[in-house]
Amino acid sequence: MSLSLLTAQYFQQLDPHLLTFPEDNYLLHPTTQETIYNTLFSESHAANDHPLPPPAYRTRVLKRLITKLESLLSNPEEDEINESLLEEYSTLLTLPKPSSIEQAQQLTYITYTAPPEDDPHHSSSQSKERRTILTSESRSAIITAGTTGHRTWEAALHLATYLSTAAGRAHITGKKVLELGAGTGLVSMFCARYLEPEVVVATDRELGLMRQIGDCAGRNGLAGDGDGIYDIDLVPLLVQTVKSLFEKYAVKEFLISATLRNERTFGAFLNACGAFVPSRFSNTEESALKVERVPFESPAEEVQTGFFHSTVIPIRTYKITA
Q1: Is-contact 134 109, C-beta < 8 A?
Q2: CA-derived radius of gyration, the chain
Q3: Domain limits of the chain?
Q4: What is the pLDDT of residues 245-270, one digit of tens each?
Q5: What average pLDDT does this structure show over 104-121?
Q6: What is the pTM of this model?
Q7: Does the pLDDT at position 276 exceed 70?
Q8: If 0-12 CB within 10 Å is exposed, 13-18 middle and 19+ buried, where does residue 224 land?
Q9: Where is the composition biased (Basic and acidic residues) (predicted)?
Q10: What is the DSSP string of 207-264?
Q11: How far is CA 314 from the centre of its chain?
Q12: Distances from the Cα of 307 to the Cαs of 80, 191, 269, 301, in angstroms?
């Protein structure tokens, strides 16, 4: 198996037990081990392309890798573990270990890799190198500084996976794109860098998140809503915002992905979209929004090749039009 899958998983900082190592004979080969060191752990090699994960994460990955390699040693005269890997592991073990709270609050750069393109018309030399987006986030945190936007949630990865397909690209190419509640900015930056929109505007109510997106936009070579439904109290505000975008700004369609962790909350959103509600500006009723489910399912976790995310809880994408 190619090292490209392991590299994509590693720089997205998947839990070490989820990483896909190459097959045993290939992994044990000296050249493979040297490539792994240079690509994933060497400051002089890896950081030129992607910022390295935090030391605590690298330590956990190296521990699993070295344990795996030790189990494969059968010929003392021929089999060996790469010296650079062992030295790096020893060095990392000497570093002060941050507390679990400090690790949860620490912002780190994450590199997401999109699945390979399925449209031959857009398989450029750039895409053959894999499409990557850098974000700044706290992977372990649920709420940091009063917001859930410091990590990329499964629904955003699901939506990005859909947009990486030919069918998804059609929603973006040549269009003006506005993202509500951009959070880490993954979806906006992916659209802007790879899907050829006319313009992309990322929005979020948290100024700190917008500053992080601005920093990452520059790092992604860019000039500088996924899962927005997690609280039933926010549903009326979101629906009214969507209606205003259609009525006042000639928005053509609205895409939303949401994790169905609470079917009551998402059901309330769908019902609100389809309901006739009194207009604030006249005695008439506003027309209902049309809600259509997008026929897309994320690949099962064991066959994902990019934008890796859990599919244990169902994630749905809907297209809303006026």
Answers
A1: yes
A2: 22
A3: 3-97, 110-321
A4: 888 878 889 998 888 876 777 778 77
A5: 84
A6: 0.86
A7: no
A8: exposed
A9: 118-132
A10: HHHHHHHHHHHHHTT----BS----GGGHHHHHHHHHHHHHHH----EEEEEETT-HH
A11: 17
A12: 34, 14, 26, 10
Residue 12 · residue 308 · CB < 8 Å: yes
Residue of 6, 49, 12, 11 whose CA lies nearest to 308: 12
Which pLDDT score is estimated for 121?
63
Q: Which residue, chain included where needed, has tokens 């949401």?
A: 258
Indicate the pLDDT class of residue 285, thresholds 50, 70 and 90: very low
- Structure tokens that stand for 24 in this block: 């045993």
Cα separation, 79 vs 38, in Å, equals 20
Q: Range with the lowest mean pLDDT among 91-95, 233-237, 250-254, 255-259?
A: 233-237
First to last CA, the chain: 47
The pLDDT assigned to 11 comes to 96
Q: Give the pairing type, strands 199-202 and 176-179.
A: parallel
Phi then psi for 220, rounded to 5 degrees?
A: -95, 10
Residue 240: CA count within 13 A, CB half-sphere: 9
Residues, the chain, total?
322
Top CATH class, 110-321: alpha beta
* DSSP run (H or E) holding 267: helix 263-274
For residue 213, give the nearest of 196, 188, 180 by alpha carbon.
188
